[in-house]
Design brief:
6 strands; four-stranded antiparallel beta sheet; 129 residues; alpha+beta; two-stranded antiparallel ribbon
Length: 129
């Protein structure tokens, strides 16, 4: 069992690749360092995706997120980097990463980055009576 941070994003086969369904993941303990001051930045990450052939393995995701703890990064850059790495690992139909950073200097920052596979369209919403 690994107890070290890792940039490896393990995946597993989607158990229902014929169906569009959404996976919601909340990561409340993301940290990285401010590239200007070296002080820690804290965020909650919200990952929503519609898998295609592969899903991200949660322990691997935890170790991946942990790997940013000692890295300096601007909020916008780190959010897009994480999305790019997850898309490269899983090749989803759709993926959205929302990073809600804690207040720093009286300013809250939320960064939202998205990926859509070519040709994929979201199914129409269902309205129930």
């Amino acid at each position: 069992m690994s107890t070290r941070p890792s940039k490896d994003l393990e995946t597993f086969d989607n158990p229902r690749p014929e169906r569009d369904y959404t996976i919601h993941i909340r990561v409340p303990e993301f940290t990285c360092l401010c590239p200007k001051t070296g002080q820690p930045d804290f965020a909650t990450l919200y990952l929503d995706y519609v898998p295609d052939a592969r899903c991200v393995e949660l322990k691997a995701l935890k170790l991946y997120v942990w790997s940013f703890r000692d890295e300096g990064a601007f909020h916008e850059a780190v959010t897009n980097r994480i999305l790019d790495d997850l898309v490269a690992a899983t090749a989803p139909r759709f993926m959205r990463l929302t990073a809600e950073f804690n207040v720093r200097g009286g300013i809250y920052t939320n960064v939202v980055a998205e990926h859509r596979a070519p040709g994929w369209e979201a199914p129409p919403p269902v309205t129930l009576p």
